[in-house]
Amino acid sequence: MKKILICLIALLMVLTAGCGKQATDTTSSEGKIIVGLDDGFPPFGFRDEKGDIIGFDIDLAKEIAKRLNRPIEFKAIQWSNKDEELNSGNIDMIMNGLEITDERRHEMLFSKPYIHSGCVVFVRYSPGENNIKDRSDLAGKIVGIQKGSTAQAYINDDNELRFSIRSINLYEDSDTAFKALLNRQVDAVVGDETNGRYYIFKHQLQDKISDTELPVGDKGQIAIGFRKNDMTLRNEIQNAFDAIIKDGTAGKISERWFGKNLIKN
User: Fold this and answer.
1) Alpha-carbon distance 82 to 77, whole Å?
2) Residues facing residue 118 across a β-bridge
3) Residue 111 and residue 263: Cα distance in Å, rounded?
4) Residue 148 — left, alpha, or beta (φ > 0 → left; ψ -120 to 50 → alpha)?
């Protein structure tokens, strides 16, 4: 009986310790930070010709880790399994153009949003030609959109806008849509603001393509995702992020990738 009692007490101690671990932060203030990402999502995170992971969020994360004096590792994950990767401890945070949604709030702890992302209208840069100043100005126009994109979903859900447009040309990727704009095959392109600005800046097309800043649909908020109980890590990352925003470092990183400071203060 005494041996049984000792075993029961030992088992209770193990279970109690396990519950206590789940209720506290799982990432300490020391050691490597592992960032999970989709490595095929330019300009936020993707691989260059050498196979190295680069991108806007990569540069931001490196600067944050530098301020914390902690090593950082970038780990490519299956995007559809991001919650499992995070909660299993395979990664410590997700920083990859991650948009805040009500569904994700149930699964993750978020940093403050640092970019507003949404679909806008892009036109050829020509002061005398650009007559698209409002949504109603898309009426009678030929509009290019990436197939399966958020922009296509927005326009499909807006009957008034969709039926006012003369025709919609669908393209397999945003690059092809912008080439169609340059070749005058469409009057405008509706697409993601960050991707569009990256394309324009990368190809030095500032004098050929203009962002009207005319929004189509709602704007989302991009932030960093953490495990729900990793408040310590979240706050450390946030404090370092706040510092690089305040001193202008984050803005300079944005300008390198987009030609403009898109960081939300």
Assistant:
1) 7
2) none
3) 14
4) left
Cα–Cα distance measured from residue 138 to residue 164, given in angstroms and rounded to the nearest whole number: 7
Task: Give 75-84 contacts, CB < 8 A, sequence gap 24+.
Answer: 75/34, 75/35, 75/36, 75/37, 76/36, 76/37, 76/38, 76/39, 77/36, 77/37, 77/38, 79/38, 82/36, 82/225, 83/107, 83/108
Q: Which amino acid is at 234?
A: R
- Backbone region of residue 6 per phi and psi (left: phi > 0; alpha: psi in -120 to 50; beta: other values): alpha
**Gap between the Cα atoms of 223 and 253, Å rounded:** 16
In whole angstroms, give the CA distance from residue 134 to residue 154.
16
| Spatial separation of the C-alpha atoms in residues 196 and 178, rounded to whole Å | 8
Buried b (16+ CB within 10 A) or exposed e, 205-233: beeebbbeebbbbeebbbbbbbbebbeeb
Q: Are strands 115-124 and 188-192 parallel, antiparallel or unpaired?
A: antiparallel
- DSSP-assigned letter for residue 99: B
Mean pLDDT for back-to-back runs of 10 residues, the chain (265 residues):
49 45 48 94 94 97 98 95 94 95 93 92 78 87 91 90 95 92 95 91 91 84 96 98 98 94 88
The separation between the first and the last C-alpha atoms of the chain, rounded to the nearest angstrom, is 65
Non-local CB neighbours of 46 within 8 Å, separated by 6+ positions: 39, 40, 53, 54, 55
**3-state SS class at 71:** coil
